Amino acid sequence: MSANVNTSLPLEYQTEQSRMNILGFWIFLGAEIVLFATLFSVYGVLYKNYAGGPTHQDIFMMKEVMIQTVLLLTSSFTMGVAIWEMRRNNKKGLIGWFILTLLLGAGFLFMEINEFIHYIHEGATMQTSAFLSSLFVLLGTHGAHVTFGIFWATMVIIQIAKRGLTPVTARKTFIIGLYWHFLDVVWIFIFTFVYLKGMVL
Amino acid sequence: MEVTIVGIKWDEILITGDPIILGSQIAILLTSLGIIGGLTYLKKWKWLWREWITTVDHKRIGIMYIVAAVLMFFRGGMDGLMMKAQTARPEMSILDSQHYNEVFTAHGVIMILFMAMPFLIGLMNVVIPLQIGARDVAFPQLNALSFWLFFSGAMLFNIAFVVGGAPDAGWTSYFPLAGKEFSPGIGNNYYAISLQIAGLGTLMTGINFIVTILKMRTKGMTLMRMPMFTWTTLITSVIIVAAFPIFTVALALMTFDRLYGTHFFTVAAGGSDMLWANLFWLWGHPEVYIVILPAFGMFSEIISTFSRKQLYGYKSMVVSIVAIAVLSMLVWVHHFYTMGSGALVNSFFSITTMMIAVPTGVKMFNWLFTMRKGRIKMTTAMLWSLAFVPNFVIGGVTGVMLAMGAADYQYHNTLFLVAHFHYVLIPGVVFAVFAGLYYWWPKMFGFMLNEKLGKWHFWLFVIGFNVTFMPMFFLGLNGAVRRAYTYSAESGFAPLFMLSAVGSVILAAGFAVFCYNIYWSIRYADRNISSDPWDARTLEWATSSPVQHYNFAKLPEVKSLDAFWYMKKNNEGITLKDEEIEEIHMPSNSGLPFLMCVAFGIVGFFLIFEWHLLAAVSTVLIIAGLIYRSFDYNDGYHIHKDEIRKTESTWKKMEGKVNNHVS
Amino acid sequence: MEKSTERFPLTHVFGFVLSLVLTFVAAWVALEMNLSFTIVMWIIGTLAVIQAGLQLFMFMHMTEGEDGKVNIINIAFMVFCAVVIVVGSIWVLTSGHAAH
Predict the structure, then answer these.
(1) Rounded CA gap, B584 and B553, in Å?
(2) Confidence band of C42 (pLDDT split at 50, 70, 90)
(3) B332-350: b (≥16 Cβ within 10 Å) or e
(4) Is CATH 1.10.10.10 correct for B56-307?
(5) Spatial contact of B146 and B202, defined as CB atoms under 8 Å apart
(6) CB atoms C37 and A70 under 8 Å
(7) ipTM value > 0.90
(8) Are A158 and A9 spatial neighbours (Cβ–Cβ below 8 Å)?
(9) How far is the alpha carbon of B345 from chain C, nearest alpha carbon, in Å?
């Protein structure tokens, strides 16, 4: 199954198995689109059911949300640069940008956790109302993906450091790059249809 | 911490006080002891671990799926028989209402998710890589993980009724009934958690088969030269990827509602109970097509083979499968017209539902035209396919009746509906898996199932099926509702219910003959048969039976539709020259998928019992498995030329003097 | 899909700047301008879709490689499903009698 090697392609596309993994991951991302769409649909149905609890305007902190957004957008950019460095076969550059990406991701997570703590202090918990249940689960699922991504990427960085840039490590890096950009796509919709929409209600 | 551990109520873990359940507990214990004892006595543990549990071979994984599915068929069938016994006469008291609720819930979930799905996925596993001329699926170890996650979920669900209490809110588990408020026990946690685990496995299968079919087809096999079963598997996999995440979310939200007090589907605090129904059917309707499309593919293969003709209208078949895939996402509301969403919504979904009958009708005519002027061989597999056509049409036509939103208010939640979906699912799926099993059995094991017993199986099953479910149409029209554990003598339902119960016994007798057939064939069937006993048309028959683990010594080259038929007619590519033999790269076995099954099972079990701390701690097991996998660089192994030469010459030499059964 | 030869990741920087601009324009339209709810939602919804496309094409290179077509069909179908799920659920559960 490692046959059919094409060295004229970028490292991550060289083996047939790598090409299959990348395609498989794209299809998995398709499933993720549906997964998040379902969470958005739940939020879209329940978002005004405050049940006497806090409303959007009561709890949202737009300044912090803007910072979170910029952090995640920047991390998507640095991830792109990391892959770009990988295609220049620059291992050091790749690892540097990769780590920067994860730091930005960690910053995003830190702010999101603070945001959750703030909500809970405001008396807005997952159990308060249907609106808050759907909000917490939508944001939490995205946050859990970011968390998972950070751990996963750490594994991959260790492998790059140990093994260098091989068709396998390059493929793994490329795939986590796709994952990271995808999380940014999801965040754009959260930013738009949860935060901004909540503020203009 | 202590609170959680002390919080375990040990006396509530095992269900006590019901003689039927006590009997089951004893039976389960004895069977388990018997299996463990037998394996130890025969010194088969190592063999089991090395050859089956750690295998990544798609054929063996397929066989394990099928074995599990047959066992689940037995379990779900017993549940069905218990329901039929309870309703055979008015005011019966074999089961009380609570137990009846648990039984129909188990019956529905098991038959759809743990019988139909694995049976089809099992046959897909065995056949698809062979049909496209590949050596395995795209991700063999992921494939094993898929199976073991399914197995983990299935086992969790199956122990529910003896450990902790069975789910009792129906296979649809509608809220608010399924919520904590009205179902405070842990029974419905079993539903939420075990289906979640099994569903993850299914999603991975979907991704795996899409990539396999798109990337691993042998030379010359363009998309429009793929066998129909491969096509339907591809499209089914697409629907799996599109639909299963919805179920994942729905079950997760159910879990949150039940375990952590959120308000997605509750009546209080702004939750929406119908949101559950909406999400469930957003997944549930595509799920119907997930189980029916591969079945359509199998019928296509079988009808074409035994009519000795190319499939009629191949292109229109492909177009209609794709159309079904798209439409399947657009019909879900027809399951709850009576929610009262208004005329516009119900009309819209009435129209889309009726539209989906069109591509299905196209397929029906294609099968009929394939048979027209064919030289039809009445094998057991073909009989199932023939019986499928009229029986499925009854299911389809009553489906169009139900599709009409206004009329549905009459049929909704009556036995008419129950009869309808059994007429769709049994001819559509069960007939198909039986047909597929008789057809591909020699490919899997190198001997055939007995055709005479097969015909007994067929006639008993088909007659029993019709006697069981035809009366339910009329009961439903007369007003008998589904999921009611009894009825009064004054209702006048008794004769038809009795007839239906008698039918279910005939049905069960058919299944018993099937089991006996497997036993008989394993012991006595002729081993000296051709690798192509049906004189078939597709590539899986171009290699030996049972298939050697590397599938093909030389990957075949495809020049037309029905590739193997073409090869046979033109005598091309059938012989293997010595210089064509090359080393073959194969993936290594791995114990990780099985260990992940155990890990998921443990975490799932703790979550079901709401032992949160234990669940959180044992999640480490899953994480450890993922980390191990990330650092695993095992690249497989190569099979030497000598071994291939030896294997190939053994079966190719035999070809001369075998008993060809059908050609 | 090429091995990078240029010395500066120009498309990435361009995409990054564009995504920031789109984000801030959306925030500005929603938070600072006094437009009606519907108009705001159409504008920021469109901006979100553009930005998602930007990520998919400029950062994720969705169309590259031998499976570019498959990727497009895959993502298009899943986006279709996503729209059906979101719009359909909201429509079904908030219209007619279901609204009450």
Answers:
(1) 8
(2) very high
(3) bbbbbbebbbeeebbebbb
(4) no
(5) yes
(6) no
(7) yes
(8) no
(9) 7
